[in-house]
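#struct-pred
JK: can someone run the complex with 2-keto-D-gluconic acid? inputs below
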Amino acid sequence: MDKPPILQIGPYPQWDQEPLDATFQVHRYFEAADKEKLLAEVGPSIRAIATRGELGANRAVIEACPKLEVISVYGVGFDAVDLQACRERGIRVTNTPDVLTNDVADLGIAMMLCQSRGMIGAETWVRDGSWAQKGLYPLKRRVWGRRAGVLGLGRIGFEVAKRLKGFDMQIAYSDVEAKPYASDMTFVADPVELAKQSDFLFVTLAASAATRHIVGHKVIEALGPEGMLINISRASNIDEEALLGALETGKLGSAALDVFEGEPKLNPRFLALDNVLLQPHHASGTIETRKAMGQLVRDNLTAHFAGQALPTPVL
Ligand code: 8YV
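RT: done, structure tokens with the ligand placed:
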């Protein structure tokens, strides 16, 4: 049987590329110098798109592929896929939930600890000789026993909260409704109230048009000059202008961010700040998890072309 032609939007590790190339006729969008030319040439034959969470597939790409049947996303977030364009044509969409949950939660906790205890600055203190010349490293803020808020108690938010319990923290959360599986945490419907009651606010919401800038001026200012914002979801959940302004003026104490508007290019104002920890969108970036994500991307594509039920559909 002929290999189904697919469009690959972004690169994958070699251990995923090889089996993908073996099963499908892969056209590499990300390698094309002239992307429109590639779409004009191969678009009419494309039956599937393999993409990554942060890259998705926009309407122009989807419309350039009239025979498109399925989009398989390497990532739990599918907000970068134009779902409306998919619905209009009955195009299926899959993602990679569950396999990355624990690693994403781990990184969120690591970011909180690293930032609160000033570990990046402490490393520099040792390496640049400040320890020997200036003496003790400036004191930082404790984590254990303090108040944590989790904005979005889905799979990842729940795992973050579970880990926070190990630090004897007082945990509250916001979501569209109280969750039956969170009876030992305080439900606070309003994100501004949640921020008021938090020293550390984790953003773990699945991004959508409805959650865009849910963390705006009010939430940020409610978190306040002693508060820390940790984002392991999507940049669009936070009003970045409001965040930058609050970090620059001290209205917000600090932030630890894995995601940025326009990433991998980020607003240079972030680089000038010493109260922010910057991470390169790698919360799911362990070998174990990325292998499981790649497998799930292929499993969804293979199931589709075999006429079987999709393992992890979102549409
Ligand atoms: C990325 C993610 O997909 O799961 C998500 O939604 O954003 C990440 O796991 C990852 O950077 C791979 O592209």
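RT: quick notes.
Residues 52-54, 74-77, 100, 281, 284 surround 2-keto-D-gluconic acid (CB under 6 Å).
The chain has two domains: 5-99+288-305, 101-278.
JK: thanks, will look after standup
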